[in-house]
Amino acid sequence: MLDLNLDDDVPVVKKTLKVKRPRFDASLVYLTRKFMDLVKRAPDGVLDLNDVATALGVQKRRVYDITSVLDGIDLIQKRSKNHIQWVVKLSQGQILTYR
């Protein structure tokens, strides 16, 4: 058996990372899906990013990661400092979906 103690008087302490939720729950894919759920329910597709961060339980930086990509592919636009709007116009009968 391998002894990891470098000094007999000082035991080795193993630290474990405490995860509050499963890793998938914090992934950008999961958060983007939850973000899209919020967009679908938002009046006129306008969201306050502070409210989004609170609703998703993440730092605002993670919300910016999502909005940056969606803005880059012209699905949303910035309305003000903390507000975005979904800009893709759907014709009648079309629904907003994601996989």
TrEMBL record:
Gene3D superfamilies given in the database record: Winged helix-like DNA-binding domain superfamily/Winged helix DNA-binding domain (1.10.10.10)
Keywords in alphabetical order: DNA-binding, Nucleus, Transcription, Transcription regulation
Location in or out of the cell: Nucleus
GO molecular function, one term: DNA-binding transcription factor activity, RNA polymerase II-specific
Gene Ontology cellular component annotations, sorted alphabetically: RNA polymerase II transcription regulator complex
Keyword Transcription: yes
Pfam families: WHD_E2F_TDP (PF02319)
PANTHER family on file: TRANSCRIPTION FACTOR E2F (PTHR12081), TRANSCRIPTION FACTOR E2F6 (PTHR12081:SF19)
Protein name as catalogued: E2F/DP family winged-helix DNA-binding domain-containing protein
Organism: Pavo cristatus (Indian peafowl)
